[in-house]
Design goal:
Layout (H helix, E strand, L loop, with lengths): L2 H15 L9 E2 L9 E3 L1 H9 L3 H11 L6 E7 L3 E6 L1 H13 L13 E5 L11 H19 L3 E8 L4 H17 L3 H5 L3 H20 L4 H16 L11 H6 L2 H23 L5 E4 H13 L11 E3 L2 E4 L10 E4 L7 H16 L3 E7 L3 H14 L1 H4 L2 E6 L2 E2 L16 H19 L4 H21 L7 E2 L2 H4 L7 H18 L13 H11 L1 H10 L3 H21 L8 H21 L9
Parallel strand pairs: 5-6, 5-11, 6-7, 11-12, 13-14
Antiparallel strand pairs: 1-2, 2-4, 3-4, 8-9, 9-10
Length: 593
């Protein structure tokens, strides 16, 4: 039993003995460490039901609280909080445990549970934008957080390779071939990045023309291309008279080859961000199954939850649940995103047989997902009950209207990676502490840490503003700062050479004690962060640990002290906790900075 659980059990026993009845007693880590290592508001919870002053109840509980060698002090503060401070004996036991126990960081809360976490979900034929990069980083942190609690995780990526965006791109591409006097064969000779960016330009051309309602011919041709591309994957679709035209233009081969370019390009970005997916799903693979599911459950068939309406098939959302009506099969007989999403839910469960399925998307998709999950709950309550959807806000740049990287209103994910790396390299060069070779070896890792930490330190669901100068700073609440803390620990340990580390029972000075108090909270903060899918909680903890270590380092002369061997043990354990925490966030460490 850990100390938090021990305090909780003691509070339960004391409150019962005093005649207080409460369903749930909370013991938490206070945000302000001056308020103790653990805190409980039990007195305020009880006061509401018994009509007494919470301070009186807190003091009564304090008087009855049993002696515990792991607790040095218990105090009551207004308006009725009970705060617990760890003893030196307990803190030293944590120090020894982190150092000697090879499984110290292993938590088995979710052992035996299988998760499928779907994230990134870029669309081939469109730009891999900053929002995809954000979802990739958050999704990877979710996967690592639940893995840290013992769960097995299947990383999944659902990529939209059919739909109007594809038709817009191919239509735009045909027009650009005419405009630029090049052929598809000539485009194939270009570098992969150039090819993909050419497709991005083609998409913007098709997008703008489709939105211009004056150009009826463009709209008609894009709709035809859309139907034709769907037909490549759905055998049951009716063959149209215009198919001959697109077959003569070799659209089928162009489509599949261009899709492969995009998927290869995406893999380059995944390799750079440190993501390896276990399962890839394509929208094109879900079309026929989505049609079948919906058609088999139209009113009068199956569950009877879908309804034919003006040539389409719809799901009428219950307004009392805040749901609206969505089209699942459109008037052309094509499955919409909603139908394909239903097919994906069944496909995932069929392939993975998960305990929990987590999906991360932009928040504008939330209303759509609510309707899909409501329909899924009627088709398969078992599968629907295992789903959890997280939405996220926008990722913005300061004064982003000035960004030269924009494709319309789109900021490329790779551009952000490259620009951040360049900013880091410039900062490192100006500092004079690195030579050119060192900079080239670590600048991408440091740049990634800046992006990942900036994204993850903000609560999922809120907008993120990425500021290059702030995010890449080696001071303050940043990824590079945390890497620097780890590297400083590593440097001290390297400088100590063969000096043995001593984890024995020593009298703690105030700075060593504060550092140990911070270290002792790691597993609880990791647990809280993972169970609530809040990587920002872990980010906040690591930043506080970094600040506490730097205060320790500035005030305690580790290598010059008579107590160096013991102080080195604190440095060693700090580096282990920092490295583990950064790894859980998906941030690679740098050994020397």
């Amino acid at each position: 039993m850990d100390i938090k659980e021990s305090v909780l059990r003691s509070l339960e026993k004391v409150s019962n003995n005093l005649g207080f009845s409460i369903n749930e007693i909370k013991v938490e880590i206070p945000s302000d460490f001056t308020h103790g290592d653990l805190t409980s508001n039990i007195a305020m919870q009880v006061a509401k039901s018994v009509g007494r002053n919470p301070m009186d109840i807190a003091n009564e509980i304090l008087s009855a609280f049993p002696k515990d060698e792991n607790i040095e002090k218990v105090e009551v503060i207004k308006p009725g909080f009970i705060n617990f401070f760890f003893s030196q004996k307990y803190l030293l036991s944590v120090l020894n445990d982190v150092n000697s126990n090879t499984e110290y960081f292993k938590l088995d809360v979710l052992t035996g549970k299988k998760y499928i976490i779907e994230y990134t979900d870029p669309n081939p034929f469109k730009i891999f934008h900053i929002g995809h990069l954000y979802t990739n980083i958050v999704g990877e942190s979710f996967a690592r957080l639940v893995e840290a609690l013992g769960a097995s995780v299947v990383r999944a990526n659902y990529q939209g390779d059919v739909g109007l965006h594809v038709a817009k791109t191919i239509w735009g591409l045909l027009k650009m071939f005419e405009r630029d006097s090049i052929s598809f064969e000539e485009l194939k000779e270009r570098d992969l990045v150039d090819r993909v960016r050419y497709l991005g330009d083609a998409y913007m051309l098709g997008f703008n023309m489709y939105d211009d309602e004056k150009d009826k011919i463009a709209i008609k041709e894009i709709k035809e291309l859309n139907y034709y591309i769907f037909s490549l994957h759905i055998p049951s679709l009716e063959r149209k008279e215009y198919f001959n035209k697109y077959e003569q233009l070799n659209i089928k081969d162009m489509y599949f080859e261009e899709r492969d370019w995009c998927l290869e390009y995406f893999e380059r970005i995944y390799a750079r961000t440190g993501t390896k997916f276990d399962n890839y799903f394509l929208e094109s693979e879900m079309g026929q199954k989505g049609l079948d599911i919906v058609k088999e459950n139209i009113v009068g068939k199956g569950k009877g939850i879908f309804k034919e309406s003006e040539g389409s098939v719809i799901y009428k959302g219950d307004p009392n649940k805040g749901l609206h009506t969505r089209v699942f099969i459109n008037s052309e007989g094509l499955p919409t995103y909603e139908a394909k999403e239903l097919a994906l839910a069944f496909k995932k469960y069929e392939d993975i047989h998960f305990d929990h399925s987590v999906i991360i998307t932009a928040n504008e998709q939330t209303p759509y997902f609510k309707v899909v999950f409501d329909a899924l709950s009627q088709l398969s309550p078992e599968i629907a009950s295992k789903y959890l959807h997280f939405d996220h806000g926008m990722v913005k740049l300061p004064n982003e209207e000035k960004m030269s990287s924009r494709k319309g209103k789109i900021i490329e994910g790779e551009w952000l990676l490259n620009e951040t790396k360049t900013t880091v390299e410039k900062s490192m060069l100006e500092s004079g502490r690195w030579d050119g070779q060192d900079i080239s070896q670590v600048s991408d890792t440091i740049g990634l840490s800046a992006i990942k930490y900036s994204f993850l330190k903000v609560s999922v669901g809120k907008d993120v503003v990425f500021d290059f100068s702030k995010a890449t700073s080696f001071d303050g609440d940043t990824g590079p700062y945390l890497l620097y803390v780890y590297a400083r620990c590593n440097s001290i340990l390297s400088e100590a050479g063969d000096l043995k580390v001593d984890f024995g029972n020593k009298e703690l000075d105030v700075y060593s004690k504060e550092l140990l108090r911070s270290i002792s909270k790691y597993k609880s903060m990791l647990l809280s962060s993972a169970l609530s899918y809040s990587p920002n909680t872990l980010c906040t903890y690591l930043f506080d640990l970094g600040k506490t270590f730097n205060t320790f380092y500035q005030n305690v002369k580790v290598l010059e002290s008579d107590n160096s061997a013991f102080l080195l043990s604190l440095v060693s354990v700090t580096s282990k906790v920092m490295k583990h925490g950064l790894n859980v966030l998906g941030i690679n460490i740098v050994e020397r900075m």
